[in-house]
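Chapter review: from sequence to fold.
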Amino acid sequence: MFMENVLEDPRYMIGESDENDFEKRERAKKFYGELLRKALSEIEALGNETVMVCGPLRGQAGDNMHSNLGILQEKIREISKAYTVFDQTGYRESELTDPPHEIEMKMDIFYRGILTSGKISRIYVLPGWETSSGTQREVGYAKESGVEIEYLSPMGDDRISQ
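The token string follows.
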């Protein structure tokens, strides 16, 4: 039932538009729905009390995506020492085969789906999240679902312990 609700969001119902647009949006909806199913299956296999780390990859102009990805991956490794972490980095567009590149739809179907599924108990949010519209949305989805949110210090002196 959860998946059907996400995929039937009225924002993704195609009204009067050309056939190409319809096919493109339907393909994207199907792609991100299948991606969500895969991620939820992975999260379920991880067990209870799974957490997720969120942070800016692009943020403001001039941010180095490669550097930001490295920071995110390092924090995932660190938090993994104390908690079971769902690593979302393998679900980036650059890691996927023939993604539709419909980022708005991906945020609303994939990330909202994960964070409202009840399978993530807490998110850790990296500094600079305010500069990233994607991370802002992840935080919003977490709040909407009652997922605990821990904002990490910019000084890097957070103590992650169980």
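Two observations follow directly from the output. The beta strands are 50-54, 84-86, 120-125, 148-151. The mean pLDDT is 85.
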